[in-house]
Design brief:
Number of strands: 4
Shape: elongated
Distance between the termini: 50 Å
Structural class: alpha+beta
Radius of gyration: 15 Å
Helix content: 25-40%
Length: 111
C-alpha cells in the first residue's frame, strides 16, 4: 500500500503555564479540530481523557491531504485512509502518556 505521511509536532510540557493550545488536527495547513473534540479519533484512543485533555500537551498533527474533512470541518470523512491514519497514531499515545506520567510523578516528588 501507499506510505502515509503524518507530521506530529507535539510537546509535553513540564507544568501548565503558558499552554493554552491543545493538540489539533491539521490538513494542508488548516485546522480541522482539537484531537479531544474529534469524536471518531477519541473512540479509537486508548487514553481519550487522561492524554488528550491534559493541559501539559500541546501541538499539532498534520494529516495527509487525501484525508478529507466533513462539510463542517470538525471531523474526517469515514474511510479506509482515516482508519489507517488513526491506527498509525495510536502507538504514539503510549509514549505521550508515559511522558505525562513522568512529569506528574516529578511534580508530586517536588511538592
Amino acid at each position: 500500500g501507499k506510505e502515509l505521511e503524518i507530521n506530529c509536532n507535539i510537546v509535553v510540557a513540564n507544568g501548565t503555564e503558558g499552554i493554552s493550545k491543545p493538540v489539533r488536527f491539521f490538513r494542508h495547513g488548516r485546522c480541522i479540530n482539537e484531537v479531544k473534540e474529534t469524536r471518531s479519533y477519541i473512540a479509537e484512543s486508548q487514553y481519550p481523557n487522561s492524554l488528550w485533555d491534559s493541559p501539559s500537551l500541546c501541538g499539532l498533527i498534520e494529516v495527509p491531504t487525501e484525508l478529507s474533512p466533513v462539510l463542517t470541518r470538525d471531523e474526517f470523512q469515514r474511510s479506509a485512509l482515516r482508519k489507517a491514519v488513526y491506527q498509525a497514531l495510536l502507538p504514539l499515545e503510549l509514549e505521550l502518556q508515559q511522558s505525562l506520567e513522568e512529569i506528574m510523578d516529578d511534580m508530586l516528588d517536588d511538592s
